[in-house]
Amino acid sequence: MKRIDDWPTLEEAARKAAAGAYCPYSGFRVGAALLTDDGRIMTGCNIENASYGATICAERVALAAALAAGVRNFMALVIAAGERTPAPPCGICRQMLAEFAAPEFPIRSVTLTPGDAPAAEYTLGELLPHAFELRE
């Protein structure tokens, strides 16, 4: 796993992003903080929709913001969700991240309140060992 010097700053950014979540159906707030290779932190929150398929996860909101800003290289991701157990990214988010990050890309999941539970750490490769790749 890559060495990230300031996980606490990323965790705080993810928790702050979760405060903006629009989740009237599940009540499950999620925030994400994506560290770019130039040191910026791009954040996102989950945005639900009455048509559940139109819902977008916090991780993909952060990734879309980074891509829209022209960023294509990333160092780490923190996800803040839940109260008792940190939540890893969903399958769609894992696949989206695999488009732009290597298998050793570090992901940390934390709860919404610091100290509720220990952080869970993964690499993208551990979470998605056989990512889909379009090969011609």
Explain what you see.
Strand 3, helix 3 and strand 4 form a beta-alpha-beta unit. The chain is built from four helices and five strands; from the N terminus they run αββαβαββα. 26% of the residues lie in helices and 21% in strands. It has a five-stranded mixed β-sheet. It has a single domain, classed as Cytidine Deaminase, domain 2. The chain is of the alpha+beta class. The N and C termini lie far apart (30 Å).
List keywords for this structure.
Cytidine Deaminase, domain 2; 5-stranded mixed beta sheet; globular; alpha+beta; 136 residues; 26% helix
Topology:
Blueprint: H1 7-18, E1 30-36, E2 41-45, H2 58-68, E3 74-81, H3 91-98, E4 106-110, E5 120-123, H4 124-127
Parallel strand pairs: 3-4
Antiparallel strand pairs: 1-2, 1-3, 4-5
| Estimated share of beta-strand residues | 15-25%
Main sheet specs: 5 strands, mixed
Strand order across the biggest sheet? 2-1-3-4-5
Roughly how many Å apart are the termini? Answer: 30 Å
Give the CATH topology: Cytidine Deaminase, domain 2
Helix % is: 25-40%
